[in-house]
C-alpha cells in the first residue's frame, strides 16, 4: 500500500510536469510569432532583434523536454495512454521548434525590410496581419486541445488549415500582380512572399499538432487520412 | 539459457527489421526526389503523375514504422542505445516523410509548368539540377551514416548543408534578376523559386537526420549547437 501508489504518483507528476513544459513552450512560441509580426508591421527593429535573441529559449525547451521524455521512457516504461502522451509530446515539440524558427525568420526579414523602409505596402501588411491572426489562433486552439486531449476541437482546428492555405494563395496572387505592375517592387515582394509562406507553414505545424492530439485521444494515427473521414470515425466512436 | 537469449534475439530482430524499413523508406524518398526533378527537367507529365501517385507509399512507411516503434517501446521497454535507436528512427521518418512531400510538390509544379512550356529557361534548370544532385547526395550519405551509426560521416554531411544554402541564395538572386529584366517571367520564376526552396529544405531535413545519427552514436543531443563545436566534442571522445 505504500510503495506502488508512490511510484505511480511520482510518475503522474513527471508526466504532468513535462506536459506543462510543452504548454509553456507553446506559449513562448506564440509570443515569438506575435512579436515577429508586430516587429514587421510597426516596423520595430529592437523587437525583431529580441525575437531573434529569444529563439534559443525555444530550442532550450525542445532539448529539455526531449530529454525528460526519453528519461520517462527509459525509467517508467509507460504503456497505453501514457506512452501515447509521451509520443505526442515528443512530436509536438518538433513542430513547436519549427514554428519558433519561422518566427525568427520573420523577425530577420522585418529587420532586412525595415532598413530599406520597404514594408510600406498597406495591402501586403493587411494580408500578413490577417494570415498571422488566423495562424496564431490555430496554434492557441491546438495547444488548448492538447491540454485537454480534445479530439473534436483538434479536428475543427485541423480543418481550418484549408482557410489559411486559401488566404496564402490569394496573398501570393496579389503579390505577383504587384510585381507585374511595378517591377521595382519585385525584391520586397519576394520577401513578403516568404513571410506569407512562413505563416502558412505555421498553420501546417498547428495542424500536425492537432493530428497528434487526435492520436492521443483516440489511440490511432490519423496522419494522411482525409479529415472528413477522421471526423466521421471519431463521431462513430 | 533458453528464454532470455530468445527474447533478446527476437528483440534484436525487431529492431533490425524496423531499422531496415527506415532505410527502405529512405530509398523510396530518394527515388521520388530523383523522379520529380527528372519530370521537371524533361518535362515528363506522366513521370510527374507517377511521383504524386506514389506519395501515399512514403506515408504508408511512416505510419507502419511509427506503429512498430511504438510497439517496441510498449512491449520491449528498450533502454540506453536501443532506446536511442528507436527515438532516432521515429524522428528520421518524420523528416523523410516531409522530403517525400517536397518531391510530390516539385512534381505538382513540373505538371503546372509543363503545361505552359514555361520551364525552358536553361540557366534555371541547371541551377535546379545542381542543387538537386547536391541534396540527393546529402540524403544518400545521411541514410548511409544512419545505417552505420557513423557520427563522423553525419557531421561531414551536416556541414555540407551550408553549401546547399549558398547555392539556393545564388539561385534566388539569379531568379530575381530574370524577373526584373523581363517581368513576363515573373510567374514561372516564382514557381522556380518554390522548387529551389523545396530542394533547399530537403537538405535541411537530411541535416536533421545527421543530427539524430550523432545523437544515436554519441548519446547526446547536438541540435542547436554549432557544428564546429559538435565536431570538436566528437573528436575529443
Summed up:
By secondary structure, chain A is an all-alpha fold. Chain A is 87% helix and 0% strand. Chain A has one domain (4-235): Methane Monooxygenase Hydroxylase, Chain G, domain 1 (Up-down Bundle), CATH 1.20.58.
List keywords for this structure.
homodimer, 237 residues, mainly alpha, Methane Monooxygenase Hydroxylase, Chain G, domain 1, 87% helix, flat
Describe this structure in words.
The structure is a homodimer of 237-residue chains. Chain A is an all-alpha fold and 237 residues long. Chain A has one domain: Up-down Bundle (Methane Monooxygenase Hydroxylase, Chain G, domain 1), CATH 1.20.58. Helices cover 87% and strands 0% of the residues of chain A. Chain A has seven helices and no strands. The first copy, chain A, has helices spanning 4-41, 45-76, 80-115, 122-148, 151-181, 186-218, 227-235. In chain A, helix 3 runs antiparallel to helix 6 (186-218) and helix 4 runs parallel beside helix 6. Chain A is flat.
| Beta-strand proportion of chain A | under 5%
Poorly predicted runs of chain A: none
Annotated CATH topology of chain A: Methane Monooxygenase Hydroxylase, Chain G, domain 1
Structural class of chain A comes to: mainly alpha
The mean pLDDT of chain A is: 91
In angstroms, what separates the terminal alpha carbons of chain A? 36 Å
What's the CATH C level of chain A?
Mainly Alpha
- Give the SSE string of chain A: HHHHHHH
Number of domains of chain A: 1
Q: Oligomeric state of the chains?
A: homodimer
Please compute the radius of gyration of chain A using only Cα atoms. 20 Å
CATH architecture designation of chain A: Up-down Bundle
Shape of chain A: flat
Q: What's the helix count of chain A?
A: 7
Q: Output the CATH homologous superfamily of chain A.
A: Phosphate transport system protein phou homolog 2, domain 2
Q: Sheet bearing the most strands of chain A, described?
A: none
> Percent range for helical residues of chain A?
over 70%
Biggest interchain interface, per-side counts: A-B, 31 and 30 residues
Q: Tell me the number of strands of chain A.
A: 0
GO biological process, one term (chains A, B): intracellular phosphate ion homeostasis
GO cellular component, one term (chains A, B): cytoplasm
Protein name (chains A, B): Phosphate-specific transport system accessory protein PhoU
Family (chains A, B): Belongs to the PhoU family.
Amino acid at each position: 500500500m505504500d510503495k506502488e501508489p508512490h511510484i505511480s504518483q511520482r510518475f503522474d507528476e513527471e508526466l504532468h510536469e513535462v506536459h506543462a513544459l510543452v504548454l509553456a513552450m507553446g506559449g513562448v512560441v506564440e509570443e515569438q510569432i506575435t512579436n515577429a509580426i508586430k516587429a514587421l508591421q510597426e516596423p520595430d527593429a529592437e523587437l525583431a532583434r529580441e525575437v531573434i535573441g529569444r529563439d534559443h529559449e525555444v530550442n532550450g525547451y525542445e532539448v529539455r523536454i526531449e530529454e525528460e521524455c526519453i528519461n520517462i521512457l527509459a525509467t517508467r516504461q509507460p504503456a497505453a495512454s501514457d506512452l501515447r502522451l509521451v509520443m505526442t509530446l515528443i512530436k509536438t515539440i518538433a513542430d513547436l521548434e519549427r514554428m519558433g524558427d519561422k518566427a525568427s525568420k520573420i523577425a530577420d526579414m522585418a529587420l532586412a525590410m525595415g532598413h530599406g523602409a520597404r514594408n510600406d505596402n498597406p495591402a501586403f501588411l493587411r494580408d500578413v496581419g490577417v494570415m498571422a491572426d488566423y495562424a496564431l489562433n490555430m496554434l492557441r486552439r491546438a495547444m488548448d486541445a492538447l491540454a485537454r486531449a480534445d479530439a473534436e476541437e483538434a479536428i475543427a482546428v485541423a480543418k481550418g488549415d484549408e482557410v489559411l492555405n486559401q488566404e496564402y494563395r490569394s496573398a501570393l496572387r496579389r503579390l505577383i500582380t504587384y510585381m507585374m505592375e511595378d517591377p521595382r517592387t519585385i525584391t520586397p515582394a519576394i520577401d513578403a512572399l516568404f513571410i506569407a509562406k512562413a505563416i502558412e507553414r505555421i498553420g501546417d505545424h498547428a495542424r500536425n499538432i492537432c493530428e497528434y492530439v487526435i492520436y492521443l485521444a483516440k489511440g490511432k494515427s490519423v496522419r494522411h487520412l482525409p479529415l472528413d473521414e477522421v471526423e466521421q470515425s471519431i463521431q462513430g466512436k
